[in-house]
Every structure is written in structure tokens, then in C-alpha cells.
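Journal club side-thread
Mid-discussion, someone asked how the predicted structure for our own chain would compare to the paper's figures. Pasting it here so we can look after the session.
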Amino acid sequence: MKKNLLTSLLLALSLSALATDYDLNKPFGFCTVSSRTDATSTYDITGGGCYTYPVPDGFTGKVTTLKSNGLDMKDNIQKAIKNNDVVILDGADGEFIVSSNIGITASNKTLIGINNARISTKWKMTDEIKAALDNAGVPSMSTSGGGGKLSNGQTVSEEAEFNTRQIIINLTGDTKEDYRKSGCLSLSSCQNVIIRNITFVGPGSVDVGGTDLISCTGAKNCWVDHCEFIDGMDGNFDITQSADFNTVSWCIFRYTSNSYMHQNTNLIGSSDSETTGKLNTTFAFNWRAPGCNQRMPMGRVGKIHMLNNYYNCGGASLCMNPRKNSEFLIEGNNFASSVKNCYKNNDATAVTWADNNTIANTSVSKPSSFGTTVTVPYSYTVAPAADVPDAVQNGAGATLPYGENSGSEETTGKTGSVLWAMSSNTDAEVSSAISDFLASTTMTLGSELELDGTQNISGVGIETKIKQNNVNATSASEYNAIRFSVTTKSGYKFKATELSFFATRMGTDRGKLDIKWVDVNGELSLANGVTPNRNNASTPYTNYSYNVSSNSGATEGTCSLVINIYELSFNNGSDNFKDVGFAQILIKGTVTDNSTGITTPVMIKGDGRLYLQPMWAESRQLI
């Protein structure tokens, strides 16, 4: 389109540094073939006939658009998939809550998310459940033996799972254990399915033999692209039971403090007896983010291509794990310095570890290749591993600029940058390109707090340290509040959809946080009295993440993410003030022009950069 060409040219001329765009925006990898060795055996993966939004003019397939009604949407989504070729999930009215997995058994389907579409499980782990599991000593129990018969008559062979399930039954009264079905999608014996631009949110990982966020069993030639997976109960996305020729690209896998144990991300092959010759899978440009512990992936039987993935899951017990009868081709991946357990082979047939992989931690030995050189039957380009962290962190996840006004001429020009100064009471610098609607972003400290320099949080990045200022505060108040504020100009409204940040306690066993969002609707309490992990813990940070799309209002003027710090000082009666560190403050939302009604999604990050995805953009730009 002419306007897109002109806009792209202006951006290229006006912006001094843009990350190289490795996103092909089309199917690639194993989903495009039907043989693990023969390059001539291609497969035309189309999904329901298109995989971009808006649906092209002249498309003759059946298309439907769904919005959330705030209730259980499982049946609505399942019927829409059954009766249509392309299903658009529009997140404008909030997240899609599902009581259990949505089954996809029909072939030739496309599922696309727009306007920050999220599918979220109805059942969630609670602090009460986690406390009961801690009190019972579940984390130290065996995951390979023990067990017994539950009060509902079910027999469980593992001690940790047995006690976990019995405690949840006791607390919830769910004797049928319907909570164990808390997943989002199940691809079963289907073919040619495309899923893009959707965030999947589970209940929190817990060892109950439960459901994955997405399970792919026996499905072939599926492409899952630009999605985010958070807190799956069992796995985040498992591919098993002779599934074959599938690609997972530009996705984020992570776990938050909602998860308890069993943060096992991707399983390929459910047992050593899986049928050989199947389970051929491509993982490309995915982000294994903080909270992931193992299975990234653990793979059996298949030929598994690991291309340009990024790992910054510090504290993980094991990342890549080639298992029985598998062949791994590992190229251009980047492991952050916080990651120590990058790889372990368990009886694989062959592994080709290319020299272009990067392990930043110098104490980790480079794995060795063995067996016959592993190759794949499709063409591809390996990006330099040094480019992977920026490319993946800026492009992975549900970041495709899909929304109601995609392609609208009036959206041209709504791009630019801000400098969100990570210092006290300092206004942001806002570039002229967006100064028509965004006035400023600021970080403001209460009088009882002060900045205490910066320090690296392992696996997360540079964080700002904040301490109490000679005050032994024991509760939240305006004086110990940090405010990350967004201010719009008159005629524009900002609506928050997602808030997140990382926090750590620096050298102290004390310190609590209260977290809330403040806008024209008042105060929305998100957490009270929570305690981040300590910097010397195996996972030296806590990721706090909240979806507020259904609770926040469109705001003219200023709205704020407010974090109170208290009970941090005077450890053992001494004037020994400690720190809480914060990193990657992220406020996602939309800005609406009141005069035109045009809405533009934005992401404002606390590292000083604004990521803006105008809805007309054909690929995501780092501004």
C-alpha cells in the first residue's frame, strides 16, 4: 500500500537506530513440509485461508469476530471455531475466560487475536493454597515415588502430586477435580491450524498432573506464532502423541509469582515409547523468560530445530534437554549470563551444536555435537546470536499491530519515542512525533524514599535501587510511594491493559510492597503486603504482572502505577537501610484520539523506551 511504503521510508530516515527485523511474518520451518528429510515434500499451510488482520478484501471463507462477555467463553469460542474458517478474538471488551480447554479437532482453521486478546483460565492458584502446600512441606516431597489414594478414590503414584491434590480438594471442595482441566486450547488430530497474536494465561503451575495451556496431540502442520504463554498448570505448550511438522515462532514463555512448582515449559513427546519418525518441530525466535525452570524443550523422538531462541531464565534447573531417539539441530541461540544450566543430553540419537550459539556465562562449558550431522528439509537464515536478545525481546509475544483501525489512513504519524527518566521527580523527554497526545511519563518518589544507584538483577537487566530514607515505615502511605505516571494531553485518553515489573530485595529479609493502579475511576488494588524474592535466591527476582483491561478506565490527564515500600529498614534495631530493586517497568495500554476515535496500542517501558505499535504497521518497529 502506498501509505505504508511512504511511512516506512519516513521512519527509516528519521529514526537513527532500528533493530534488524528478522520476522518473516509468514509460516516457515517444519510446518511448511511433510517430510523430515525431503525438501521437495512441501506443505502449503494456510490455516483457514488467511493469517493476517484485517482479513484481505475478496476473502471468501467464513469469518467471525468474538468479544468477551465477561463470563465463561469456552462454548462460544469452540462453536465459532467449528463453524468458521477464521476466528478473530477481539480483546477490546476484556479477556476471554474459559472453564477448561477449548478443543480443536477440525483442520484448516485460523485463530487471530486483536486488541490485546487474552484467553485466561477461570480457576486460579491462590495464596491460601500455596500457604497450605508450604505448610505441608510439598516442595521437598518426592516427584517420582510415594503417593496413595485420594479422598475421592483416585490413586496417585507420586508423593508431591498426591499431597497437592488432596490439599486442593480439602480447600476447594472440588472432589471431581475439575480445576485440573485449567488449560486454554487442545489441538487434537487436526492439520493446517494457525494461531497468532494471543496471550494465554493459566492458573499458575502446580504439580497435579493437570492440563497444559496449549496441548498439541497428534496435530500436524500447525503454526503457533507471536503468542505469549503465562503460568500454565502443567506445561505452557506441550507437543506429544505423534504430533508432527509443527512450528512455534516468536512466542514468550514465562511464569509469575502465581506459579508454585512444576514450571516445565515445553515437552516434546510424552514418553520414550512415542512412535519414531514423528514430532518434528521448529522452535524459532522464542523467549524463555524469567520463571521458566526446565523443559525448554525436553524432546523425544523428533527432529527438533532450535533456531535463534533467547534464554534469560536465571535460576532454571535445565534448558534444552535432548532425550531418547531425538535429533536436535541447535543454531544461533543466545543464553544470558544468568543461565547456568543450558543443556543436558539424555540418550539422544544425534545433536548438532553449531558454533554460532552464544553462552554468555563463561563458567558454562560449550556442549559437543555427536552422531550424524542433523539437517532440516527447508531453507532458513540464521540470525547472529548477538542480535537475538534485542530482536526477540522487542518482537516476541502478542505484539502484532492488529486492532480495529488497522489500515486506517488517519493513524499515520502516531509514532515516536519518550525518555522515561529513571530518576526522582524528573519529566520525560517526549519526541515531537507523539507530543500531540502524550505529554509526559514520570517516576516520582515519596519523601521517605530515595534513589540508591543501580545494579544488575541477574537475568533481568539493570535495575533502579530504592531505599527508605531514615524512616521505619510499617505500612503503606503517600510518603513511601513510587509513582510511575502517564500523562496525556487534552483531547486524548489513555487506558491501561497490562502492568508488570520485576522486583528484588537487596541484602535483606525484610520489605513489603503494596501495588495499585490509580486513574479516573479511583484506586484499583492489585496486591498488598507482597514480598519480592531476595537477590541471593535461586530466582533473584519476582515478576509481578496484572491484567487491568477490565478494570481501568480511559483517562484524560494522569494515571499511575503506584508501589509502596515499607518494613524495609531498621533490621534488628540498627540503622542499616537496605534496598528494593525495580526493573522493566511495563505499562501496556491504548491511546485514543477523542476527535477521531482512533485508538493506538502503546507499551511504555521503564528502561527509557516507548514501544509503539501503530495499527497500520506491517511489522513491529522498535522506536
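Post-session note: The helical segments are 2-14, 74-83, 127-135, 159-172, 388-395.
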